[in-house]
Amino acid sequence: MAAGPTAKTTLTYTITNTAALPLTGLAFSDTLPAGLVVATPDNLNNGCGGTVIAPPGANSISLVNGSLGSSASCTISLDLQVTATTAGSLTSPAVILSSSQAPNATAAAINLTVTVPAPTFTMAFAPNPLGPIGPNPITGTGTLTFTITNNAAIPLTGLAFNHTLPGAPSSGLQVAGASTFTPSCGLPTLTATVGGNIIQFTGGSVAVGGTCTVTIPVKTAVALTPAGTYTYPNSPVTLTNDQAAPATAGPVTWTVVVY
């Protein structure tokens, strides 16, 4: 099974009596793994008699004094709440069922996979294409924008990416001015030195459904001559975070037309 953080999932126990006599005193105790608790409400449905002990918010589920007729089956189902906030596998250990008549039976361990959808991550130049501009020689200027959108049901933290602006043609591109990010990015560190070609973004965070925008003024490193079309290919950029899978933007190309 798979579920996302804050999601609910239904857990079902099935007991089958293959004997020719009824079973009484049915009992088991199941300790949930960290990251799962009994939901509120639990929507408990007990078809096995006795008493199921599973208060909302608890991390264990027990059956005491259940009963089942001969050659019959019964089920117990209830909802669980995922409290884990990172992707991974939650393993519920094997559960032992006892009764007053038959030998113990064991239900095998099961896994719940917690999935956190990766954010949407894009990068784009504007205007693109730039021009025609001129007459040559002339410096092309624009902006490079990175956009991060949180698609998960939990906040994303530890957002980080690195990008090196291309070094060709005509000495490539460089940072042209002060870089900015929107308040929805949290309190990250953004390093983009004017005149340099390295962009580093670390420590960002985005709320559920939020969008973070990072804007970098860029320019051609030298005035462009002769007239013609200059294309600057930017390699893919990978965004990492503490909760979800990485996301990749690009590659993208900035085109500058000079007359």
Might you state the CATH topology name of the largest domain?
Immunoglobulin-like
Name the CATH architecture of the largest domain.
Sandwich
Low-pLDDT residue spans: none
N-to-C span: 60 Å
CATH class label of the largest domain: Mainly Beta
Question: Care to describe what's here?
Answer:
The protein is mostly beta strands and 259 residues long. It folds into two domains: 2-114, Immunoglobulins (Immunoglobulin-like, Sandwich), CATH 2.60.40; 120-258, ntegrin, alpha v. Chain A, domain 4 (Immunoglobulin-like), CATH 2.60.40. 0% of the residues lie in helices and 54% in strands. It has no helices and 25 strands. It has strands spanning 2-3, 8-17, 23-31, 36-38, 45-46, 51-53, 60-68, 72-82, 88-92, 95-97, 105-107, 110-114, 120-126, 130-133, 141-149, 156-164, 173-175, 180-181, 189-191, 198-206, 211-220, 228-234, 237-239, 247-249, 252-258. Strand 23 (237-239) and strand 24 (247-249) form a beta hairpin. The mean pLDDT is 95.
